[in-house]
Design goal:
By secondary structure, this protein is of the alpha/beta class. It has a single domain (about 65-270), classed as Metallo-beta-lactamase, Chain A (4-Layer Sandwich), CATH 3.60.15.10. About 20% of the residues lie in helices and about 25% in strands. The protein has eight helices and 16 strands. The strands form four sheets. It has a six-stranded mixed sheet. Strands 9-10-11-12-15-16 form a six-stranded mixed sheet. Strands 1-2 form a two-stranded antiparallel sheet. A hairpin with a 2-residue loop joins strand 13 (about 200) and strand 14. Helix 5 crosses helix 7 (about 260-270). The longest helix has 12 residues, at about 215-225. It binds the ligand N[C@@H](CCC(=O)N[C@@H](CSS)C(=O)NCC(=O)O)C(=O)O. Ligand L3IBWBLD binds near residues 125, 205, 206, 278 and 279.
Amino acid sequence: MCSVISRVKPVQRALASTLRLRTNADGLNYAAAQSRRFCPGFITGAQPLWVTSRSYCARIATTDGLLFRQLFEVESSTYTYLLADADTKEAVIIDPVLETIDRDLKFVSELGLKLTVAVNTHCHADHITSTGLMKKRLAGLKSAISKFSGASADIHLKEGDKIPFGRHCLIVRETPGHTDGCITLVTGDQTMAFTGDALLIRGCGRTDFQQGCAKRLYKSVHEKIFTLPDECLLYPAHDYLGRMASSVGEERKFNPRLTKTMEEFADIMNNLNLPNPKKMATAVPANLVCGLQD
Ligand SMILES: N[C@@H](CCC(=O)N[C@@H](CSS)C(=O)NCC(=O)O)C(=O)O
């Protein structure tokens, strides 16, 4: 389905024949999954969340051959995303957080995944990435970040690059404005996009530090995200109100900042007056070298 970028090594495909999953329900009983959709996303307690009508979560469960997990880190309200080819088990993790490295690696191990790439959507200011430490704990794992981030990594990404995992891939769209090196990762079929801090649900990343520029962000969102199909589901790096996903059509219509003119948007962004993230002084230097190393 997607071509392979030369900088990522081909992954062992021998697992494919022995480790096949029922793709429609990620291992759940198929009939049950059809009648009562299981939401594999953010779970606040021990009980899984069941949804009765077709929703964002239901859409996830019906994506052909794609295993998807939306994970949450409570202190920084960060979403980490795990995507894998249900047949080959090749997997990619987006924006993993240091505090939740054990949880994330347990998922990888329990689901029998072969994690090949850990990608950060940008150099985060509010938490330390677990990418560096994850590389030490998983042989063959490669880190990836935008070439414009200023951060070290095995793979430096640019517009149009593809991160393959089995029959699936993520395609890089550069969406600077919150930082210089912000990227949005879009699935090959354009049904899902991981927007980092460029576009949040009914909001967007702040533009008052780390090379932030409101007009640049406005242009990025309008040209690189709002040009995706209306049905494309959007998954941000954060949400502070418990929301999990949105869609392009929804944000084009209801985002209170991005529906304004560029001048109005810049005025809003330049007057947010938010306090700096609590961990900023330690997070940024650490993330420039792929997070903590030991
Ligand atoms: N309170 C948090 C930081 C909250 C914050 O500033 N979030 C950023 C994304 S992480 S750099 C942001 O862009 N927010 C935009 C908004 O409108 O809220 C902490 O102390 O860590």
